[in-house]
Amino acid sequence: MADRQSIRRWLSQAPQLQCPGLHREQLFALYELALRALLPVNRVSVTAPGQVEVETASAKTFTIYLDNLWIQYRDDQDDRVGILERHLAAMAEMIEPVEQSTTRDNIVPTVKEIEYMNLLREDTAREYLVADMWIVYATDLPNSIRTVRTAELQALNIGPSELRGLAERNLRRILPAVERHGGDPYYLLTAGGHYTASLLLCDEVWEEVQELVEGDLVAVVPSRDVLLFTGTGSREGVQAVRQKAREIHEGGDHIISQTLLRRVSGRWRAFE
Predict the structure, then answer these.
(1) How confident is the model at residue 197 (pLDDT cuts 50, 70, 90)?
(2) For the chain, what is the domain count?
(3) How far is 226 from 220, CA to CA, in rounded Å?
(4) What is d(CA 87, CA 89) in angstroms, rounded to the nearest whole number?
């Protein structure tokens, strides 16, 4: 399997990456070249704008969606090579999976939007959360996050009544420190990049910040790495998080939802 070092070396020798005005289609063309050069694939073909279908050497096929990659690349001029390196490393792990299986210790809950659910296999482990959001259970791996199949849970003897609690405990163990930014009228929470939206599931976080707002907590997760909150007692705050969520949702990557949530008696529900 192509390791991070070989991927980094290939990218460092790609002259296109030195072009400050690299366009979307040019980036996708470079990505296709990287797939062919670094990974054991029989075929790489564009099936739709921002979508690449890959056939592996073992004749398996899957689709890579590149729009999020482009948005990240476009918006982060300081870490463009790193963004491509991490994405290609994740693809390498999918194409040439190593012996990294799902265990009781690496199952985590991710929060996803309804559109994402339409792309999943029917046997993906999932659970309805609230409004237009779902919990999709995943395996946390060194270079990627892979959805969990129900057959994997059965093999580990993990039933529906145990799954969420187990995944939330694993999440708390791997999360970096939760950081709070901003102030009145609204706040931003961060906890690394991949699992910030999953903070919705951590009751202790919301018990701690409740005293910062007036009224019930109102939160929104426009993307997987952005979580905003305010209180029902601040009309200005509610308007601000609604507007900010709209802006992120329209131009951000790994988008989730613009739906505002209200926390009542320790549970989230759609905010009316």
Answers:
(1) very high
(2) 3
(3) 8
(4) 5
In this structure, the answer to whether residues 76 and 118 fall within a common structural domain is no
Domain boundary residue, one of 174, 192, 215: 174
pTM of the model: 0.71
Q: What distance in Å separates the CA atoms of residue 203 and residue 101, rounded to the nearest whole number?
A: 29
pLDDT at 215: 97
- 71 and 111 share a domain? no
Last residue of a domain, one of 133, 159, 174: 174
Residue 27 included in any domain:
yes
The Cα–Cα gap between 60 and 95 comes to 9
Asked if pLDDT for residue 84 goes beyond 60, the answer is yes
Convert the pLDDT of each residue in 30-60 to its tens digit. Answer: 888 888 888 888 888 888 888 888 888 777 8
Measured CA distances, 172 to 123, 161, 222 (Å): 26, 19, 21
- In angstroms, the CA 117 to CA 139 distance is 17
Domain boundaries, position 146 = 107-174
Compute the C-alpha angle 170/172/178, nearest 5°: 150
SS3 158: coil
Task: Say if residues 102 and 154 touch (Cβ distance below 8 Å).
Answer: no
* 3 state SS of 161: helix
Residue among 253, 225, 257 at smallest CA distance from 66: 253
List the end-to-end C-alpha distance of the chain, in Å, as a whole number: 50
pLDDT band at 254 (very low <50, low <70, confident <90, very high): confident
Q: Which residue has the tokens 């009228």?
A: 185
- Measured in residues, the chain has a length of 272
DSSP-assigned letter for residue 148: P
In a domain, 100, yes or no: no
Lowest-confidence range among 50-54, 122-126, 177-181, 188-192? 50-54
Q: Average pLDDT over the chain, rounded to whole?
A: 89
